[in-house]
Amino acid sequence: MTTPLPSQLSEPDEAALISAARRRTRRRRLLIGVAQVLLVAVVILGWQLGADNGALDPFTYGSPSGAADQLRTWFTDGTASGSVWHNISVTMQETVFGFLIGTLAGVVMGIALGRVRVLADILAPFIKAANSIPRIVLGAMFTLWFGLGVSGKVALAVVLVFFSVFFNAFQGTREVDRNLIANARVLGASEWRVTTQVVLPSAMTWIVASLHAAFGFALIGAIVGEMLGAQAGLGMLIRTAQENFNPNGVYAGIFIIAVLALVAEFLVTRFEMRVLRWRPTQLSGDNAGL
Fold first, then answer.
1. 245-259 pLDDT, tens digit each
2. Coil, helix or strand at residue 259
């Protein structure tokens, strides 16, 4: 017995297959969500029980209830550097600026070097050397250059984002089908039109894929810069808690950062779905979670 091809299916059969695939996807998402909630609950409950029973030293490891109390204090009474919302806004300002500038620079440089081979050959050793410099060293250097303000944190975030996006844009440009470029030139397209209308759309999958990691790198750059020296920000709150031997303050800061990262990941995913909606939809529900 042969399975009918999609083109041979009647409209009711095709609709039934699509409906069944969507039900499987919803069921899978529900199971994954339940498993994630249970995993978090087990970790938090085990951590709290360990702290209550003395298996984990609260002075060293803190506790979930202590971290919750710290968050409540921050949001109700504020911090030494102002309200917690002010610190969050400072960190997000540094992160967003670093993300946007680094992404733009990475895309432009990646496509330019991917299109002009002689330019890539000239700049390759300098890019590799710059990428090999430890980020903590760059953070200390930017703090000396720009002081304790926002500029140094933005600069560090830009560096982290740039290399993440640059290498993807460069590789995506190199992977463009040469036949498409040749056909565009035969039709009389200029190099600018070939780049903007053929190369950029073809490399967009690579570029957008890099944005998921890029925002995380921007947030890391902002936090690390603040921990090295800042007047406000989540990194400064974590550093202050560490210096005061307050593990609950460290965990409270990490929790806020994790929430911000998850919200950003959701927004980047929505952006990816909109920009790359021409890709075929996966109805099987077997997509990777990462």
1. 889 999 999 999 999
2. helix
| Residue 252 identity | A
Token representation of residue 245 = 């031997």
Closest by Cα among 213, 226, 211 to 92: 226
Categorize the per-residue pLDDT at 290 as very low, low, confident or very high, splitting at 50, 70 and 90: low
Q: What is the pLDDT of residues 72-102, one digit of tens each?
A: 999 988 888 888 999 999 999 999 999 999 9
Name the burial class of residue 21, with classes exposed (0-12), middle (13-18) and buried (19+) by CB atoms within 10 angstroms of its CB.
Answer: middle
DSSP-assigned beta bridge partners for residue 79: 82
123 Cβ neighbours under 8 A, 6+ residues apart: 113
Q: What are the tokens at 246?
A: 């307050």
Q: What is the maximal distance between C-alpha atoms in the chain?
A: 76
Q: Computed from CA positions of residues 73, 217, 277, 282, in that sequence, does the dihedral angle turn out positive or negative?
A: negative
Q: What is the pTM of this model?
A: 0.79
**At residue 289, what is the residue type?**
G
pLDDT for residue 200: 81
